[in-house]
Design goal:
The complex is a heterodimer of chains A (235) and B (409). With 235 residues, chain A is of the alpha/beta class. Chain A has seven helices and ten strands. In chain A, the strands form two sheets. Chain A has a six-stranded mixed beta sheet with strand order 6-7-8-3-9-10, with helices on both faces. A four-stranded antiparallel beta sheet of chain A has the order 2-1-4-5, covered by helices on one side. The two termini of chain A are 22 Å apart. Helices cover 56% and strands 18% of the residues of chain B. A six-stranded mixed β-barrel of chain B has the order 3-4-9-6-8-7, surrounded by four helices. Classes of the chains: A alpha/beta (235), B alpha+beta (409). At the A-B interface, helix 2 and helix 3 of A face helix 1, helix 10, helix 11 and helix 13 of B.
């Protein structure tokens, strides 16, 4: 079964006289275990697609099949349940809860699917370990660097064993060195844990950490090609 | 279903972020609950005091006054035209089956002197049955007897206030006091009773045989005259019957034809006092209800702050939704915050209310009683206020669109 199937999806915003087509008849298939980047200028529709992929928004037209289920039919709470179990988000601005420890931030998704207190702690610690933040559990976001905060965000995204991680410009607020550390984590998650990673970026260097690049322009999917490695290999 | 304990922790933490704001918000509830508790305490205290005073009067009491019912309220004093006789009382006692006991009263004010102390008090001439009717035990000595009444003996039973003012520490029993310059021997002292429902000091009195009062102290307009008659009915249920029996008897004795107006009035003392007690109860609830208005105001304060809080934490709500919080999860979180605010305010308000009533007691002398019921009520009420006024902000929060919420600056 294909993990993600986007069939002729459009997203239209009605602004009175003008209709904005954020997405125009987009079709796309993503298999489990892929690592892909979505690139394009502002307004090209990449963020809109991410929102739809992440079940934060519904398409105006077309269908989005996630693990064979048509997401367009589902109500708010069912979408929330999918986000909880199937999708992990990583944002450019980290979006951690301030005044809350790293551990509690990572535990957050588990609050909403009834995991016991003990299990929550264990799983959160494990997720932090995977992203290399062992020992920093009790620090609050204002005590962590940008890169460390993003690691916490990644830990939160994987703590519920979601098969998909969506990252919207995850390195946008980070310096070059930290950016590559973060991208290496994504690669590790993809190769070792077989998590499907979908990335939005406008930086080519970042996109080349992934294995497939999709380009958007004016709401349309214009290019879809695998990443060719420096030594010419198709990864 | 979100973990309850965790939600409470999160709510407490959110409140702790801005302690000043939380405290000010709680203030409305604290004042509201404090006011309700204090008002209920004052009302209950008053009610219990009234009940105690009523109990101290005696039970199942009827009072017969001279003059028609066109005249005044319940007054232990003179009617416009004296029409009652000692023999009326004796007759009522003998011929009315529903009457348990009857006592005539012939009274007035008099100066009482002992040694170099003097005191002005109400002296009541009556029969020994009076003590039974008033359910009034003796602290020392004895009461006068029917023989004393027959012989108009100059003996007296003193109330505690009279004793305190005339005798200091000396034992009054056996001593001679002068009532209106006439020597009376003190044969007994009454137990202290406190204030009557009308606010008079019941212990400021002296009982003497009715005949002594008639012949030696106050005189009579006609032979055998008494100022009023007290009747005790056999039971609460028989009070109306006793009243009826006494009325029929007196009409007969006074030769009042069916169409004529009576020259006496019979009042159901117990009924009057029960009505007073009922009024006190209503008053209590009224006070409580008025105080509750401030609780509502407190609730509005909570709603206001919660709305601000929701707006401030829009991004946080977005994050929670993004990781899988459902509509109910968000609502529950904010309702819980409002609830904790109001319950904490309720507890603090309870403390304020109790202290407030203590202070009122000390300063104004009002009796106050804080009942468990009022505490439970106030607590429950504050909880309901929290949930009710917290609901709208929570509802608003849950309707946010995750994407918009995440983008909120």
């Amino acid at each position: 079964m294909t993990l993600i199937e986007i069939k002729s999806v459009s997203k239209v915003y009605d602004l009175g006289e003008v209709q904005v087509r954020a997405l125009d008849d987009v079709s796309l298939t993503i298999e489990g275990g892929e690592f892909l980047s979505i690139m394009g200028p502002s307004g090209s529709g990449k963020s809109t697609l991410m929102n739809i992929l992440g079940c934060l928004d519904q398409p105006s037209d077309g269908h989005y099949f996630l693990e064979g289920v048509d997401v367009g039919e589902l109500d708010r709470d069912k979408l929330a349940a999918i986000r909880n179990k199937k999708i992990g988000f990583v944002f450019q601005g980290f979006n951690l809860l301030s005044r809350t420890s790293a551990l509690e931030n990572v535990e957050l998704p588990m609050l909403y699917n009834g995991v016991s207190v003990k299990e929550r702690k264990d799983k959160a610690l494990e997720a932090l370990r995977i992203v290399g933040l062992e020992g920093r559990e009790l620090h609050k976001p204002n005590q962590l660097s940008g890169g460390e905060q993003q690691r916490v965000a990644i830990a939160r995204a994987i703590v519920n064993q979601a098969p998909i991680v969506l990252a919207d410009e995850p390195t946008g607020n980070l310096d070059t060195k930290t950016s590559s550390e973060i991208m290496e984590i994504f690669q590790k998650l993809n190769t070792e844990s077989h998590i499907t990673v979908i990335l939005v970026t406008h930086e080519s260097d970042i996109a080349h950490y992934s294995k497939r690049i999709i380009r958007f322009l004016d709401g349309r999917l214009v290019k879809d090609e695998p990443v060719v490695g420096k030594d010419g290999c198709v990864c | 279903m979100i973990d309850l304990l965790w939600t409470i922790r999160i709510a407490l933490r959110a409140l702790r972020v801005n302690k000043m704001r939380s405290a000010l918000t709680m203030l409305g509830i604290i004042i509201g609950v404090g006011a309700v508790i204090a008002m209920l305490a004052v009302g209950t205290g008053a009610r219990e005091q009234v009940a105690a005073q009523i109990a101290s009067m005696g039970s199942n009491l009827l009072i017969v006054l001279p003059g028609s019912s066109a005249s005044g309220g319940v007054r232990m004093g003179m009617g416009t035209q004296p029409t009652l006789k000692l023999e009326d009382a004796e007759s009522i006692g003998k011929d009315c089956p529903a009457v348990e006991a009857v006592a005539p009263i012939h009274n007035g004010n008099a100066q009482v002197v002992f040694g170099n102390q003097n005191w002005s008090t109400g002296v009541q001439g009556t029969t020994p049955s009076m003590l039974e009717i008033r359910e009034w035990p003796l602290a020392a000595g004895r009461c006068f007897t029917d023989d004393d009444v027959k012989s108009a003996a100059k003996v007296a039973v003193l109330g505690q206030t009279v004793v305190d003012n005339l005798f200091g520490g000396i034992d009054p029993v056996g001593q001679i006091v002068r009532i209106k310059k006439i020597p009376f021997r003190v044969i007994g002292i009454l137990e202290p009773k406190g204030q009557s429902p009308q606010g008079q000091d019941q212990d400021d009195t002296i009982y003497v045989p009715v005949t002594s009062a008639q012949k030696k102290l106050f005189g009579t307009s006609f032979p055998g005259m008494v100022r009023l008659i007290m009747i005790k009915a056999k039971s609460l249920e028989e009070m109306d019957i006793a009243e009826q029996q006494a009325r029929v008897l007196l009409r007969q004795r006074h030769h009042i034809s069916p169409r004529q107006e009576e020259d006496f009035t019979i009042r159901n003392l117990t009924q009057i006092m029960q009505t007073a007690e009922q009024s006190a109860k209503v008053m209590t609830y009224l006070l409580g209800a008025i105080a509750s208005v401030s609780l509502i105001v407190g609730g509005i304060g909570i709603m206001n702050i919660m709305l601000v809080s929701v707006t401030e934490r829009t991004r946080e709500i977005g994050i929670r939704m993004a990781v899988g919080a459902k509509t109910w999860d968000i609502r529950f979180q904010f309702i819980m915050e409002a609830l904790i605010l109001s319950l904490m305010g309720g507890i603090a308000g309870f403390v304020v209310g109790v202290s407030g009533s203590r202070i009122l007691s000390a300063l104004a002398g009002w009796p106050t009683v804080v009942s468990i019921l009022s505490a439970v009520l106030a607590f429950a009420f504050s909880g309901m206020v929290g949930i009710f006024f917290g609901f709208y902000p929570a509802y608003k929060a849950s309707l946010l669109h995750p994407i918009d919420a995440l983008r909120y600056e």
